[in-house]
Amino acid sequence: MGKKHKDGKDGKKAKKKKSHEDVSGTGLATAVVNAARSMRTVLSRNLLATGLYAGQDGVILALAEEGGLTAGALAARLGVKAPTMTRTIGRLEAQGFVERRPDETDGRLTVVHLTEAGRASIDRITEAGRLSERQAADGFSEKDVRHLLKLLRAMDENLHAAMPDTRGEKAVAEDI
To answer: pTM of the full predicted structure?
Structure first.
């Protein structure tokens, strides 16, 4: 029979989960931000063939999924401020990917729609995203990727729960 340890287990020390204090100073925030920045840079490079830049692809994909949307609805959906979305829409319009039209039911609203060129870019955008993901996950097993996605989603939920909501209270994950 094995030797008893302080933790009462035979032969193996109990593995405990680390608290957030145990991992402070490990550079988690820096690693996540650097990986996100690198992913965005690679995606931008892979999107060049479409004539788009990172960020613009999200607008086109949202419009492809939803049809026409207002600038405010696009900004909210993509998590950017309204002025940023207005500039992005202006650039996409100048490039011929989107057009603005009055809303059919409320003439006070302007709705953004894909043009034929915008619809034609969807497959190339999707492929650029897939290529970026393959490059980011090079050398990872499918299990590694699934685990990473699970951890990143959990991290995102933790961070959303820590953000104050509009009432000044801590947001609850179900509210987001």
So the answer is: 0.69
Give 22-76 pLDDT, tens digit per residue. Answer: 555 679 899 999 999 999 999 999 999 888 987 899 999 999 999 899 999 999 9
CB-side exposure of 57: number of CA atoms within 13 Å?
A: 22
Task: Kindly give, in sequence order, each residue whose CB lies less than 8 Å from that of residue 101, ignoring residues fewer than 6 positions away.
Answer: 68, 110, 111, 113
Task: Locate 17 and state its tokens.
Answer: 């989960």
Task: Collapse the DSSP code of 98 into the 3-class scheme (helix H, G, I; strand E, B; otherwise coil) and give the result.
Answer: strand
Q: What does the alpha-carbon distance between residue 95 and residue 89 come to, in Å, rounded to a whole number?
A: 10
Domains of the chain: 51-156 (1.10.10.10)
* pLDDT at residue number 69: 94
First to last CA, the chain: 52
By the 8 A CB rule, do 105 and 111 touch? no
Q: By the 8 A CB rule, do 71 and 85 touch?
A: yes
Q: What angle do CA 17, 22, 28 make, to 5 degrees?
A: 100
* The residue to which tokens 């909501």 are assigned: 165
Per-residue confidence (pLDDT) for residue 169, from 0 to 100 = 44
Rounded-to-integer distance, Cα 145 and Cα 136, Å: 10
- Give the model's pLDDT for residue 106: 87
